[in-house]
Amino acid sequence: MDLRLTLLLIALCSPGVTKVENESTAQPGHVHTTEAPELATAITIGPNRSSSEEEHDEDCLSVGRSQQSREAIAAAIQRLGVQLLHNLETTPEQPNVIISPLSISLALSQLALGAVNETEELLMHHLHENTLPCYHQSLHNVLAQLRNNDLQIATRIFLRQGFEPKQEFVFESRRLYDSEPAVLESLQQINNWVENATNGKMTDFLSALPPNLLLMLINAVHFKGEWKARFDPRFTSRGVFYLDNKRMVDVELMEDAKHPLSVFIDNDLEAQVKYPRFPFLKSMSLLVVMPMSGQVNVSSLSTRLNILDLYRRLPKERAVQVKVPKFKLEYVQDLKDVFTKLGLGDMFSSPNLADMADGPLLVSSVMHKSSMEINEEGAEAAAATTVVISRASHPVFHLNQPFFFALMDDKTQVPIFMGVINNPNPGAPILERGEFGSKDKVGFPIDKDDVSSFRGPPK
């Protein structure tokens, strides 16, 4: 499975910058990866800080390492992700939504470092940090736990030549979020950084620089995981994915007769819902939520989910016969409208970013691009040559209709990616079919014995 996201969350501009100045910044030129000499002092020497601030930092170091703070960070990131999923609209061109609540939280948090007064309060409110002291230190500690060979997180500050941010903001961005400043020299420089940060998986991220650009905060999250038990490509075959009661698309279905799966059925969300958890190596999991009726809106369902509670209720893994669609999807979205809808409109009109730099600054764009690929790759191929597909020997789970997913870190229970997949093959022609549940459906067998076999543990 390959998930990668690059988020240009903050493009800060000033109305006072002339078009000529901006064009000179945007011209292609030789790309340097070193920081500007005039920023060397700011990024290598910490700012003078009072003893009370140092004492507060010492307190935060211990608070930020606690289990309580890790759980609070995970819950806050989940709430932000669910809130965004509920408000991001799909289109015929983009029927699916794929976001990284971790990446979005990281970018908003870095912006909050430079915000003061009402702007800071507004940002922290939407980051759901209300009950969490030492938010930045707690998030910093969670990021340190998340980084591994499969999950890579990179951040960077790009500055227009001549623009000087405040020393404290640069220092704290570097200390808490490993975000190094660099002078912005060309569009290609941005795209090269994104390409490198995503291991070459995402190219030509930007086609143009925003006008009057002063500063850009960019972060990239890249995950490439191996299934705990791989799917044998020999058993991948053509099948169908049901978009709704009457429409379906052709897909490639990966199949495994004995896939290790934690799965149960719940009736608490006004509809029977299946919750399977697909394990990866290195303590990562793909949690899937699929209604058992095609009449349920998956995006609306996500607002009633408590992922952390579901995680705790999952039973032990068991051998399950599974069918999962193989797909490769992309998602591109400017998040400015959805942030405005959620109450962050002041960020784009009159924010107070006095701790970032002197003079008026505006957030001009919130560009987000992500991609997701699910295929047979995995590290464990034991007994692959002897596996036999049998429909009767094990319970079955077919992921063959719209579903919600969350890519979870098992240790911190932070949702790295979240999304709603309504159509895993949007480029394919849509086929008409009979009523949902007719004999041509290769779906989940909803008989009494099979349903009871997936009941979750008592609450």
From TrEMBL:
<keyword id="KW-0732">Signal</keyword>
<dbReference type="InterPro" id="IPR036186">
    <property type="entry name" value="Serpin_sf"/>
</dbReference>
<feature type="signal peptide">
    <location>
        <begin position="1"/>
        <end position="19"/>
    </location>
</feature>
<dbReference type="Pfam" id="PF00079">
    <property type="entry name" value="Serpin"/>
</dbReference>
<feature type="compositionally biased region" description="Basic and acidic residues">
    <location>
        <begin position="436"/>
        <end position="452"/>
    </location>
</feature>
<dbReference type="InterPro" id="IPR023795">
    <property type="entry name" value="Serpin_CS"/>
</dbReference>
<feature type="region of interest" description="Disordered">
    <location>
        <begin position="436"/>
        <end position="459"/>
    </location>
</feature>
<dbReference type="InterPro" id="IPR042178">
    <property type="entry name" value="Serpin_sf_1"/>
</dbReference>
<dbReference type="GO" id="GO:0004867">
    <property type="term" value="F:serine-type endopeptidase inhibitor activity"/>
</dbReference>
<comment type="similarity">
    <text>Belongs to the serpin family.</text>
</comment>
<dbReference type="InterPro" id="IPR042185">
    <property type="entry name" value="Serpin_sf_2"/>
</dbReference>
<feature type="domain" description="Serpin">
    <location>
        <begin position="82"/>
        <end position="424"/>
    </location>
</feature>
<protein>
    <recommendedName>
        <fullName>Serpin domain-containing protein</fullName>
    </recommendedName>
</protein>
<dbReference type="InterPro" id="IPR000215">
    <property type="entry name" value="Serpin_fam"/>
</dbReference>
<dbReference type="InterPro" id="IPR023796">
    <property type="entry name" value="Serpin_dom"/>
</dbReference>
<dbReference type="GO" id="GO:0005615">
    <property type="term" value="C:extracellular space"/>
</dbReference>
